Amino acid sequence: MNNRRRAGFTLMELLVVVAILGILATLVTVNVVGYLSRAKIEQAKTQLTQLGQGVQTFRIERGRYPTNEEGLRILAEPTTLHPDGILSPLPKDPWGRDYGYLCPGRNRSFEIFTLGADGVPGGTGEDTDLYHYQLDQWQETK
């Protein structure tokens, strides 16, 4: 008589479970990375809007846009109207770099931009260059 009970799992059962967990982990990781990428792009768009509004506020108060030498830094400097600055602290783009500023810009009176995740001109996806004046286009396509 052999009344021994089977205890534990076979190697094959463990391998199947590990494979299934690996597949699930891959699917979750791919989806999370996609969401993080889109979240950074949306954050950049929000910050570009804020910076554009800050530059417009500066123009209204001083009658001119910040110069290239002053850049966006001047928006964080204290004034009598804005003891903490128009925008303080000045945000960095979602990839940890300063936003670019040109006055006059190539396409507008001024341009505020980020070069995306890769930090070089051009690119697609998360590497796309984002400009403040594109915001109207983005809102139309949502």
Mean pLDDT: 85
Strand content: 5-15%
Approximate shape:
elongated
Low-confidence stretches: 138-142
Strand order of the largest sheet: 1-2-3
Q: How would you classify the helix and strand content by structural class?
A: mainly alpha
**Overall tally of domains:** 1
CATH topology: Glycoprotein, Type 4 Pilin
Give the terminus-to-terminus CA distance: 72 Å
Q: Write the element-wise H/E pattern from the N-terminal end onward.
A: HEEEH
| Largest sheet composition | 3 strands, antiparallel
Q: Which superfamily, in CATH terms, is the homologous superfamily? A: Glycoprotein, Type 4 Pilin
Q: What is the CATH domain class?
A: Alpha Beta
Question: What share of the residues lie within helices?
Answer: 40-55%
**Cα Rg:** 25 Å
Which structural traits does this protein have?
142 residues, mainly alpha, 2 helices, 42% helix, disordered C terminus
Architecture overview:
It contains two helices and three strands, in the order H-E-E-E-H. It is mainly α. The chain has one domain (41-141): Glycoprotein, Type 4 Pilin (2-Layer Sandwich), CATH 3.30.700. A hairpin with an 8-residue loop joins strand 1 (100-102) and strand 2. The radius of gyration is 25 Å and the shape is elongated. 16% of the residues are buried.
